[in-house]
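Section 3.1: Structural characterization of target chains.
Under the original work plan, the team committed to producing a structural model for every single-chain target entering the pipeline before any wet-lab resources were allocated. The record below documents one such target. The sequence was received from the expression subgroup and is listed exactly as submitted; it comprises 241 residues.
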Amino acid sequence: MSFVVIPSVDVVEGKCVQLEGGDPSKVKFESDDPVETARQWAEFFPWIHVVDVDAARGEGDNSEVIGKICEEVDAKVQVGGGIRSAERAEELIELGADRLILGTVAFADEEEFSKIVDVCRDHGAEVFVALDVNEDHEVLVKGWKEDTGIALEDAMERFSDSVDGFLTTAVHREGKERGIDEELVRKAAGATDLPVLYAGGVSTISDVETAKEAGAHGVVIGLALYRGDIDPLALLDIMEE
């Protein structure tokens, strides 16, 4: 599979935002039109990463926005945030999601997680597990608010037989423009044969190249794109290499 760069459209109360460390009180970018934002990124990139921050925190959902992005934007869409039931998974797939990113439910409810995977299989959608980790590379859940104490490698071993890939996020780097956690990328890519996407602190072209060289299948980028720190055209060159 070729390397892919995926722009992140994080949605809070219907708006596109970029947050520091996933904290809604630390907004670093805000736009009133997530659909138009996704449409602009789709001019460069084949996938859009949509995060329903409200759903992840158990504070509502942004289904209407997600549906419009899936319907109106010419790109594949992966959706994460608050997917904790088979019913919610089916709803998102029916809205047009091509891939679901499962976090908390994978660790908290094995039976429901299996049901969600079955729903994805039945509808031809991919399913990735979100491995949001702290500085010790232990998995966090519930909107990054709870530490499971489970090591990254153990989590990957647990799910490798049931999912299509992983999204590994360095929460300690997210939105802080401190560069990537290269050790984490290498650890994650070396622990599985499945595709590994990396997110967290991607701030420069060099960060993207480093993640690619470390074995990542792709990177999810947020703030650096919104601020213009990274030229989308340069990212196209990396994807085509």
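The mean pLDDT is 92.
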